[in-house]
């Protein structure tokens, strides 16, 4: 279903040159962005976080046809687990959190980087385990039932986190201080977010091109048929959610450190902001496509930043209007709309290339 | 009396299925031996598709048992039965509409032994080769890059048949394979069904309303009416069976 990954185009050399050029432009912009416009480094970092959000949401929501409003759970879990792994080896966690961030644990550079690396890794593994358990339980639900159930998960997770004292309960948790200058810190996290988005994109593209991609597409198109053909539907669905959880948890770990403060309901399990944006960005760009979520995230994030700068006070209203316009004018998303208008550019053929298939084969 | 003792590949014994007060299948027993082509006919609403659904585990039976290769399958779920090699196609075609014909074929590979690494792997050239040769076999090779949903009903039926073959089943339950297919193509399809049976060794149980097709194709035929088994026998004997004529064939 993805335009770039699966196009049986007529001139593979030309289209792969185009793809390479696209990658080169994005890589160049990604690498040089914070050097050219250092004042916007953190905004750029969030751009890549948004790309990761949209890409991971699209695994279920687009490619598999399961609208999930609960993916934010894995983001929040990742954020908390990462912070705990960063802090706990060096001080008493309960004491640290009851000091509301006034306790400086003074990590050395090595301790900090090692802690962050281990934190992201453990965060990803914990999130995958949670996705496995939740997925085995509720991925048997279909359609609206699944969507509503995941909505409940997101809300519940925030409330649960706000009730756990050892991670700061309702007053949240502060992540450790970066051992260096603020500019270096911002650039450091920017490149991590950029790398995460790139790795997520490439990993998903690779997976979509193989059996996994076709299996979840088949589930989207006709799950009963997929079952009748012997597909391990529950396994594929659970794996899909685990993959989304893996990358989301790492982004959670990074975002917790960028913001520096983890609020259980406004930052970690922020269903009303991040949780909804994931869905919107994927739909805006075109769900079920490879580039749609990327494009949607970029447009959404830039527009949102512009609203904050030029329409302060009305930014939420403008965002609401934007959402309505997206749904009304681009129900298939931008890539979906382009694909409908210019199918040949996406390697989709409307008519058979030659011959007549009605002829009985010999 | 299980399949192992009688030599039957598929055996339904005294199967009863009710929907509320409606008895869709009442005490039906049938057996299909390996390598056979067996027909299942009967008027609309006589319970043919319900019987298929009961066999493949789509819904539980209220009474009776179903066994496949000597193994009880009445309690198994749809995908588990499919992975044993007992596959069904649908009366209203079911293909993956937003995927190309080739992609439909690729994902129809057998799923019996599937490891995590296998689930995340790419397709081997051998899979594509088999997919393309089967598309060629049903005459859809030229249309392999089209969205399956954009194919005509008849083409979708052919694609569904090819997908079933791709799955490497031991036995196929075909629900009206020729319905909606262009009359000139029907002969080609009968030929292909025979070849699937003879060359690939796939046992067939076929629901069909087209009498010319089923009388030509099947070695034995079961006739259902009002949820009950009315008659069973060779095509010739059924054609002259007064009960079958009254219930279904009419005088012609």
Distance linking N and C termini of chain B: 39 Å
Backbone shape of chain A: globular
Query: Mean pLDDT of chain A, rounded to whole units?
Result: 87
Uncertain runs of chain A: 1-10, 352-362
Q: Strand pairing plus helix content of chain A: what structural class?
A: mainly alpha
Topology readout:
The complex is a heterodimer of chains A (362) and B (252).
Chain A (H helix, E strand, L loop, with lengths): L2 H4 L5 H25 L4 H24 L7 H16 L5 H6 L10 H30 L4 H19 L11 E2 L7 H27 L2 H11 L1 H6 L4 H27 L1 E2 L1 H5 L2 H15 L6 H19 L4 H15 L3 H9 L21
Helix pairs in contact in A: 3-8, 3-9, 3-11, 3-13, 3-14, 4-6, 4-11, 6-11, 8-11, 9-11, 13-14, 13-16, 14-15
Chain B lengths: L2 H4 L3 E10 L2 E11 L4 E5 L6 H8 L7 E6 L2 E2 L5 H6 L2 E3 L12 H6 L9 H4 L5 H14 L14 H14 L4 E5 L7 H17 L3 E5 L3 H7 L2 E6 L2 E6 L1 H5 L2 H8 L3
Parallel strand pairs in B: 3-8, 3-9, 6-7, 7-8
Antiparallel strand pairs in B: 1-2, 1-4, 4-5, 9-10
Helix pairs in contact in B: 6-7
Could you characterize what this model shows?
The complex is a heterodimer of chains A (362) and B (252). By secondary structure, chain A is mostly helical. Chain A has a domain at 52-279. Chain A is built from 16 helices and 2 strands. A two-stranded antiparallel sheet of chain A has the order 1-2. The longest helix of chain A is centred in the middle third of the chain and has 30 residues, at 109-138. Residues 1-10 and 352-362 of chain A have low confidence and may be disordered. With 252 residues, chain B is an alpha/beta fold. Chain B has one domain (3-249): 3-Layer(aba) Sandwich (Rossmann fold). Chain B is 37% helix and 23% strand. Chain B contains 11 helices and 10 strands. Chain B has helices spanning 3-6, 48-55, 78-83, 101-106, 116-119, 125-138, 153-166, 183-199, 211-217, 235-239, 242-249; strands spanning 10-19, 22-32, 37-41, 63-68, 71-72, 86-88, 171-175, 203-207, 220-225, 228-233. In chain B, helix 6 crosses helix 7. The longest helix of chain B is centred in the C-terminal third of the chain and has 17 residues, at 183-199. Chain B is globular, with a radius of gyration of 18 Å. The model of chain B has no long low-confidence stretch (mean pLDDT 90). The chains are: A mainly alpha (362), B alpha/beta (252). The interface between A and B is large, with 43 and 53 residues.
